[in-house]
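Lecture 7 notes. Example A: sequence first, then its structure tokens.
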Amino acid sequence: MKGRKRARISQCMIVKNEERNIEKALSWGKGIVSEQIVVDTGSTDRTVEIAEQMGAKIYHFEWINDFAAAKNFAISKAKYEWVALLDADEYFSEEDAKKVLYYVRQLQDKPYDAILASWVHLDDEGNVTAVGTQSRVFRNAPGLRYKGRIHEHLASLNGRDFRFVDAVNELSIYHTGYGEIGHQEKVKSGRNLKIIQAELEENPDDYRMLGYLGDEYYSADNREQAEETFRKAISLMPDTEELIDPIRTAMTFGKLLEILYANYDTSEQNIMAVYEKAVRRLPQEGDFDYFLGRYFFLHENYPSAEKHLKRALAQLEKYGTSLKSMFLSGNIWKTYEDLATCCFNNRNLGECINYSTVLLKSDRYRMNSLFLMLTAFLLDEMSAREGAAPAEAVAAFLGQNLYDFTTLKDRLFVLRAAMQAGYQSLTQVIRGMFTPQELAVVDQALAGQEN
């Protein structure tokens, strides 16, 4: 217990012109970390002023086009047992920040170097766009430092295996840098592109750097150049499996598949060739089937879309999100929506209802999902299949699992969906839940909408 009490955290970050983010970046650590260190690499805005006002220790580092050097300088200023090194556009929630402190105290006397957390990318509206994995909280030990001038990574410098605790299901780092505003600022600066190009001048066959170069073209909406660069990166990947960087490899294949699926003119033969290479490389990755499923969905090939989207979800369930399935994780509800539509079009009505139920349990006011579910129930009823649920049973299912029919809001919502679906028998059952006075108001309102 004595060792656990000793564990404290130094929060570190390197910054340049982050006045838009710096207050939030420092706020999550208040009351959690024992010191806050900000290393400025040449800001010309109010970043340093704001950080000083918030009580951070300020250091200056001359920018030498080397992210690892700047981060290692920040670590050198940390005096406590653990380091939390997040970027200025990243933060922990208040709840997860408390968990970080709990984790380091539990791990203080155990042989672990770092904590692996989910890396949740948010757009400018706060919606999740992708979920990756990062280790940003680690032990302050001389043998742990960053490597790489760009897209740097934490590494053990003494040859010892890097040991981490997998907390991806408990801890999430929220990242806003891939939102439209923040990301366009980075693309406009051209800083990353220059460093990547310098790296490739030294080693033109570095498939990892070529993948990052493809990312830069992709972010700049130069999809043709991005596709060409990703394909070159794939052609240079080593044959020996253990030499491959799985995260970078997954991103290179994943973004290439995204480019291909988004181009309606991409042939099935073309995208399948890339998909098959990707699956051979990383058989546990769910993103490849996710993008292929989206391709078939776009082309209204619903049987193939259903097959691959189901396989993507199966991969996710079997192998988890640690270091894999980044795009699928960030678009999980869209995947369920597409699967429900696929099952409907394939007349797999039972599974359509199941997927719609999952969606409605996450948000019962998804009108499209309820409309699709009720249409599936209606078609099943019209089929005269033995065992098909009558309208009364459907209403009971909705009331027991999804809606509170004692509230006017839920009754109105389901009534509107039933009417839109042309589900007359269910419409009558739901209307029977209203008082005559309520029905008079409802009918008047519906008549007004029609006019």
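Example B, a different protein, same format:
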Amino acid sequence: MRNMNDILRQAQVMQNKLAKLQQEMADKTYEAASGGGMVKAVVSGKQELLKLEIDPQAVAGGDVEMLQDLVIAAVNEAMRIARESMEREMNAISGGIKLPGMF
């Protein structure tokens, strides 16, 4: 029964580390740009869009579809960076074990 207690204790330690990591990552921000920096997006580790900057030059030509594409590209890239960062940190703690419900 001692081995089972050790396993449960290790699981609890890992759970605490993961909870702490999730909080730390949620407080971080990730930025990406598109269109040569004409559109910049900043997201949180919670995958929330925090800030969107659009250079006035991006709308000068009146090409709304291009602007929409630039916004989507910047936001998606920032989200991808945030997600990959979280996955890297989670893998470091879990030793590469895929945990259900974790990114």
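Note on Example B: Residues 58 and 67 are 6 Å apart (CA to CA). Helices lie at 2-27, 57-60, 64-94.
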